[in-house]
């Protein structure tokens, strides 16, 4: 590519060209959900963003191993290693086994990700399936002098880690002294810790805790931060290319991950590039289950939430999440979702346009009218000014993606390209000004970017397409017999379904309404 892919690294706080550790192989790890409840729309942003990233890396020719975990144990209600396990609490309240809760919400989450167009990760490890690896990691941290046992629990020794020349806080740009000052009022229930900054590697289970495993220290369960360090190391190695997650995971979760990995004789930062997507907000507030201002993914699809005026399709939701740069906050509103639906339909209409343009471009009239531009320095004989303009419109789409996966800029460039293609369709004679090769380049790039990279696809099923074709046949018959009342009725009925009937010289056609 003329413009290499650059990514913003939270660790260095700058953008830099992406250089895989072992090209053409790329390892990507994304922190997945804690499956104690249904995911809300904000939880979908990370998976959609990193789905596009892995799609684009593969488009560029890399061989990607994409790992997205499932947290089904160890995530307590509070970040200070206190409180009940979130899944266990739901299980107790509903008289279920914890794994019933985890399995049900895991299946629902995966269904929603599929509906949103996210390709399945190459590996979806579960924390409960990697207890042995986590226990081994805890023992290694203790052996290296960075962990200690206290009343059956094991904690990471942050002061010892920093005394060894490491920098706890460097990812989130926090100063240890300030963290200490802010934590001295929160020591209740943490008497087992040597320092308020220390965090749990292993917790001894009390009598109420439903999920527990034997260990050298107690019957208990792993700390929340440990699972990602252990599973990323198992499937991607001690150092890998890209670690992703929501901005809210930067501290303490990702900060602790780096510390754990370095404490296991790995001088690296676990991943060479750390990427964080920003949050979805509702009326300017972060969407959060704890705040009660969330919209579940099911509610978005059904419209059954008081924040929403109507339901929105999965592809509209995906477009909505991609129409802003991943590091920018996005406020979810009906107006924004309606604009996303309009934009999504416009891109889908563009896909339907491509085959028509290819056919028109090869028609005898266009071939006859097409002329070859004179040879000039730096140009091939079939290159024209129009070819160059079309090529630049295509390249602009890639410039956006290569600039820190700026999907917003890519989509804007796709609209610019589509405007040009629509112009050709509206006036087929203008197709003679571009070569068939240039048009094919534009059509191929548009289709690849929309479908293969952005992951946007047409939602109507085959049965709906068949019904639409039949309806258009009725429309043509009504028009031929001058039954104009019936013509208007069919137009109105299709418009209610988001379909616009188009009468063209070539016959009747349809497009998605962009209103």
UniProtKB/TrEMBL annotation:
Gene behind this protein: cysS
Class of the enzyme per the UniProt entry, highest EC level: ligase
Taxon lineage: Bacteria, Pseudomonadati, Bacteroidota, Cytophagia, Cytophagales
Required co-factors: Zn(2+)
Record GO terms (molecular function): ATP binding; cysteine-tRNA ligase activity; zinc ion binding
UniProt: ATP binding residues: 289
PANTHER family linked to this entry: CYSTEINE--TRNA LIGASE, CYTOPLASMIC, CYSTEINYL-TRNA SYNTHETASE
Gene Ontology cellular component terms for the protein in this record: cytosol
Cofactor binding comment, as recorded: Binds 1 zinc ion per subunit.
Catalysed reaction equations from the record: tRNA(Cys) + L-cysteine + ATP = L-cysteinyl-tRNA(Cys) + AMP + diphosphate
GO biological process assignments: cysteinyl-tRNA aminoacylation
EC number: 6.1.1.16
Signal sequence, renumbered to the chain: none
Annotated localization: Cytoplasm
InterPro entries named in the record: Cys-tRNA-ligase, Cys-tRNA-synt_Ia_DALR, Cys-tRNA/MSH_ligase, Rossmann-like_a/b/a_fold, tRNA-synt_1_cat_dom, tRNAsynth_Ia_anticodon-bd
Residues engaged in binding Zn(2+): 31, 228, 253, 257
Key words of the record: Aminoacyl-tRNA synthetase, ATP-binding, Cytoplasm, Ligase, Metal-binding, Nucleotide-binding, Protein biosynthesis, Zinc
Motif range ('HIGH' region): 33-43
Keyword NADP: no
Protein name: Cysteine--tRNA ligase
Chain positions of motif 'KMSKS' region: 286-290
Quaternary assembly: Monomer.
Domain of life per record: Bacteria
């Amino acid at each position: 590519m003329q413009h290499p892919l650059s990514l913003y690294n939270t660790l260095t706080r700058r953008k830099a060209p992406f250089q895989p550790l072992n090209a053409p192989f790329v390892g990507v790890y994304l922190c997945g959900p804690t499956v104690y409840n249904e995911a809300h729309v904000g939880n979908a942003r990370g998976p959609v963003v990193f789905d596009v990233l892995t799609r684009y890396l593969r488009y560029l020719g890399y061989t990607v191993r994409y790992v997205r975990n499932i947290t089904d144990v160890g995530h307590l209600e509070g970040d200070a290693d206190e409180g009940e396990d979130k899944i266990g609490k739901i299980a107790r309240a509903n008289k279920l086994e914890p794994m019933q809760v985890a399995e049900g919400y895991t299946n629902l989450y995966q269904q929603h990700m599929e509906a949103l167009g996210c390709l399945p990760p190459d590996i979806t490890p579960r924390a409960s399936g990697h207890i042995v690896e986590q226990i081994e990691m805890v023992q290694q941290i203790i052996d290296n002098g960075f962990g200690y046992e206290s009343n059956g629990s094991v904690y990471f020794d942050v002061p010892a880690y920093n005394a060894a020349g490491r920098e706890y806080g460097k990812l989130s740009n926090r100063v240890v002294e300030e963290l200490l000052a802010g934590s001295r009022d929160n020591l209740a229930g943490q008497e087992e810790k040597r320092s308020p900054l220390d965090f749990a590697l292993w917790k001894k289970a009390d009598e109420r805790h439903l999920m527990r495993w034997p260990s050298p220290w107690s019957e208990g369960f792993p700390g929340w931060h440990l699972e990602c360090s252990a599973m990323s190391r198992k499937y991607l190695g001690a150092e890998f290319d890209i670690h992703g997650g929501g901005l809210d995971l930067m501290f303490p979760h990702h900060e602790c991950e780096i510390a754990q990995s370095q404490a296991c004789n790995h001088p690296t930062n676990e991943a060479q590039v750390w990427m964080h997507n920003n949050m979805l907000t509702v009326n300017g507030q972060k969407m959060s289950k704890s705040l009660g201002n969330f919209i579940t993914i099911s509610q978005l699809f059904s419209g059954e939430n008081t924040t929403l005026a109507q339901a929105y399709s999965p592809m509209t939701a995906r477009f909505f999440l991609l129409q802003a740069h991943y590091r920018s906050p996005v406020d979810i509103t009906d107006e924004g979702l309606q604009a996303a639906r309009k934009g999504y339909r416009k891109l889908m209409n563009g896909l339907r346009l491509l085959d028509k343009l290819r056919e028109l471009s090869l028609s005898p009239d266009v071939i006859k009218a097409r002329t070859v531009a004179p040879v000039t320095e730096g140009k091939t004989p079939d290159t024209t000014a129009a070819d160059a303009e079309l090529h630049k419109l295509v390249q602009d789409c890639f410039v956006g993606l290569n600039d820190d996966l700026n999907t917003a800029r890519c989509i804007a460039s796709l609209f610019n390209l589509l405007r040009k293609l629509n112009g050709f369709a509206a006036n087929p004679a203008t197709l003679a000004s571009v070569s068939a090769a240039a048009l094919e380049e534009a059509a191929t790039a548009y289709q690849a970017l929309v479908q293969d990279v952005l992951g946007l696809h047409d939602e109507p099923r085959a049965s709906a397409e068949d019904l639409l074709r039949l309806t258009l046949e009725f429309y043509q018959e009504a028009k031929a017999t001058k039954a104009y009342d019936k013509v208007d009725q069919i137009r109105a009925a299709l418009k209610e379904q988001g379909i616009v009937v188009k009468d063209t010289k070539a016959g009747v056609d349809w497009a998605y309404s962009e209103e």
